[in-house]
Design brief:
- By secondary structure, the chain is of the alpha+beta class.
- The protein has one domain.
- It is about 40% helix and about 25% strand.
- A four-stranded antiparallel β-sheet has the order 1-2-3-4.
- Strand 3 and strand 4 form a beta hairpin.
- The longest helix has about 60 residues.
């Protein structure tokens, strides 16, 4: 009579599976940590940008309010503001912020105040990409 041999999983295979599970969990946790760190740095940069934009917008609104009260553009003396005559009563009011960014508004000076007809945020500097390998810093 032929005896039936049963296959039994030995101690070695279960240990090997346990090691693979531990390595997988460790790898995923390191990737999650790197992702969280990257998200944190990005949110910090975004926070700096938004604060700088809000500050520049306040300066721009202060200048536009001063112009709407009838103050001639030549007499406006607010630090950081650039006033440029486009043509006639049309003026470009610009505020630099966050490095090479520029917040601008084009306005038309009227007898009764000002008419704002263009508002934009632009980058006036050269763009340089960041190194893709600085995630380890």
């Amino acid at each position: 009579m032929k005896q039936k041999t049963s296959y039994r999983m030995g101690v070695g295979i279960s240990s090997l599976l346990l090691v693979l599970v531990v390595i997988s969990i460790t790898t995923l946790s390191v990737l999650a940590l790197l992702s969280a760190n990257s998200d944190f740095k990005l949110s910090q940069k975004r926070q700096e940008y938004v604060r700088a934009l809000a500050s520049a917008d306040c300066l721009l609104e202060e200048t536009l309010f001063t112009l709407s009260e009838g103050t001639p553009p030549e007499d406006v003396d607010i630090q950081g503001i650039t006033l440029e005559n486009i043509e006639g009563q049309k003026w470009l009011v610009s505020v630099p912020f966050y490095g090479d960014m520029l917040l601008s508004a084009k306005v038309n000076l009227l007898e009764s105040g000002i008419e704002q007809y263009h508002y934009e945020i632009s980058n006036v500097g050269e763009w340089e990409p960041e190194s893709p390998w600085n995630f380890l810093q």
